[in-house]
Design a protein that fits this description.
Elements (H helix, E strand, L loop, with lengths): L1 H28 L3 H8 L4 H13 L3 H5 L8 H11 L10 H27 L7 H14 L31 H14 L1 H10 L9 H17 L4 H7 L6 H22 L7 H16 L13 H5 L1
Helix pairs in contact: 2-3, 3-6, 3-11, 5-6, 6-8, 7-8, 8-9, 8-10, 10-12, 12-13
Length: about 300
């Protein structure tokens, strides 16, 4: 309790004193906060997160707007920052490019979250032919030699759905859950088949499709809570894409199954505990400003090359 009060008091005092601290540092260094960050931090999550925080805490509306403008022209926004902060490009030739990269990453992350959110909110509909076709593709991709006897069938449990109609299992994650399963199977068919086979293990078996949908939920939670900024800001100087988000899903889905077998759970009731443990380990890694999530597997094409 005392520690919480002290932390709250310290934060309050810091925000009261922050304008004065910034003014003193500018007088001493001759650089505004944005310049000090670009000079003091190497490219990647460390720099972009600090730029993002500086913009968020700014008292200038034009700077704060960079974080919320859905139709932001990055080039024009950077020019406005140069003007507001009296930054001379000839004196600081690297700032314009470095700051542009940061703004591109920040805006790209926000747009990706909006895209994922829209996809998640798109409910699976049994009356939508495209949705139904995708579901049938999921079956034929995972069970190419086994004919599905009917649309509603106990056979769906063979690939890890809970009941006879998979449509009910997509309620939480919507079409995003189905599309991420399809992405994994399309991009890494041999690995997906291997994981499906492992899901039938007599002692450590699990529901393949349900686990996939569950990890769509984990990826979404990590994205929404902004914890994946570390990965994306280190991964590329460009805006984050849905493909890159799907690759995170593939990595986590695959790595958790390896973690599951390594932990040797007593039964499926251990899933919640091990999932939480796995997520906590991941979040701890994401606190490292240099961290990038890397796949621990390769596609057949990559292995051949």
């Amino acid at each position: 309790m005392l520690a919480e009060l002290w932390t709250s008091l310290w934060c309050h005092l810091y925000f009261l004193a922050r304008p004065m601290i910034k003014w003193i540092l500018r007088k001493v260094t001759g650089k505004c906060e944005l310049l000090r960050i670009t000079y003091g931090e190497s490219a990647g999550a460390g720099r972009t997160k600090r730029i993002e925080k500086s913009l968020k805490q700014s008292h200038q509306p034009a700077l704060k707007q960079i974080l919320s403008d859905g139709s932001l022209d990055i080039t024009e926004a950077v020019k406005e920052v140069l003007r507001l902060k009296s930054i001379v490009p000839e004196v600081h030739p690297n700032f314009q490019r470095c700051f542009s990269v940061c703004v591109c990453q920040i805006c790209g992350y926000r747009r990706l979250l909006q895209q994922v959110e829209h996809h998640r909110k798109t409910k699976y509909s049994t009356t939508d032919k495209q949705h139904e076709d995708k579901l049938m593709l999921l079956w034929t991709s995972l069970m190419p030699t086994t004919k599905l006897e009917s649309r509603v069938s106990k056979q769906w449990t063979d690939i890890g759905f809970q009941g006879e109609d998979p449509a009910t299992d997509f309620r939480g994650m919507g079409l995003l859950g189905l599309d991420q399963l399809l992405y994994f199977i399309k991009e890494y068919p041999d690995i997906a088949q291997s994981l499906l086979s492992q899901s039938h293990h007599p002692q450590y078996g699990f529901s393949f499709a349900i686990l996939g949908i569950n990890f769509t939920g984990m990826c979404y939670d990590l994205l929404k809570s902004r914890k994946l900024r570390t990965h994306f800001y280190n991964l590329t100087e460009e805006a984050a894409t849905m493909k890159q988000f799907n690759e995170i899903y593939c990595c986590l889905f695959h790595d958790f199954i390896q973690f599951w077998f390594k932990e040797k759970p007593r039964d499926i009731m251990e899933f919640g505990r091990l999932r939480d443990m796995f997520q906590k380990l991941l979040v701890r890694q994401l606190r490292d400003k240099h961290f990038v999530l890397r796949a621990t597997f390769q596609s057949p094409g990559e292995e051949a090359s």
